[in-house]
């Protein structure tokens, strides 16, 4: 049941963030849930490998390349999921920052009982 709540919260965060940002478009809530699931899978399996491979450049840029990596993964999800579009790299970067804040807030609300 906890996994279903996590998926719902991630979908809600994607949907709300896409509503806030004009450069990001999600067709409907089901698409937002699919985006949340695909993003979670990519963050669980692909991102650790990419973080390891780009560790030298991340260290040289004092961690700022990590934001670039997040934006690139958002663009990858936009290419995979139909109905989810991101206008360009900068919208993807802003989307990754805003969705982090929104999902953090929703997770805090969900775990406060």
Key descriptive features of the protein:
113 residues; mainly alpha; two-stranded antiparallel sheet
* Rounded radius of gyration (Å): 14 Å
- Give the strand tally: 2
In DSSP terms (H or I, runs of 4 or more residues), the helix count works out at 5
Strand neighbour order, sheet with most strands: 1-2
| Proportion of residues in helical segments | over 70%
User: How many strands, which pairing sense, and closed or not: the largest β-sheet?
Assistant: 2 strands, antiparallel
SSE ordering: HEHHHEH
Low-pLDDT residue spans: none
Portion in strands? 5-15%
The total number of structural domains is: 1
Mass-distribution shape: globular
Average pLDDT, all residues: 94
For the record, give the distance between the C-alpha atoms at the N and C termini, rounded to a whole number: 16 Å
Oligomer: single chain
**Category by helix and strand content:** mainly alpha
């Amino acid at each position: 049941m906890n996994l279903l709540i996590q998926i719902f919260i991630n979908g809600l965060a994607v949907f709300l963030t896409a509503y806030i940002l004009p450069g990001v478009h999600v067709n409907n809530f089901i698409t937002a849930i699919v985006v949340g699931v695909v993003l979670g899978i990519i963050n669980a399996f692909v991102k650790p490998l990419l973080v390891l491979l780009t560790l030298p450049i991340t260290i040289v840029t004092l961690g700022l390349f990590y934001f670039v990596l997040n934006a690139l993964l958002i663009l990858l999800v936009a290419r995979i999921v139909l109905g989810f579009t991101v206008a360009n790299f900068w919208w993807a970067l802003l989307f990754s920052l805003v969705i982090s804040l929104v999902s953090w807030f929703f997770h805090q609300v969900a775990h406060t009982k």
